Amino acid sequence: MADEKKKRGALGELVKAESMIQLAVALPAGCVIGWLAGSWLDRHFQQNWIGIVGILLGALAGFIQIFRTASRYLKNDRS
To answer: Is residue 18 part of a domain?
Structure first.
């Protein structure tokens, strides 16, 4: 029984570590994806401003993902 709790605890710690990695990757990944999509749209529509909007939207998406992950982590930590 104690070994089973210890395994669950170790698995729980791995899940927490994975959540922290998500927090570290969410914002840069959102910015890069937004920049790539914006650059493609810039070339497609022959504009120069869409890439900046793509970066901003990607950053916004990254922040939303960070808040969702953090709130889920804090909610599970309280239980």
So the answer is: no
Q: How many distinct structural domains can be found in the chain?
A: 1
Domain limits for position 59: 27-79
pTM score, two decimals?
0.74
Sequence letter at residue 26: A
**Is position 47 within any domain?**
yes
C-alpha triplet 61, 43, 58: angle, nearest 5°: 5
Would you write out the chain's pLDDT as a tens digit for each of its 79 residues? 444 455 567 887 888 888 788 888 999 999 999 999 999 999 999 999 999 999 999 999 999 999 988 888 778 766 6
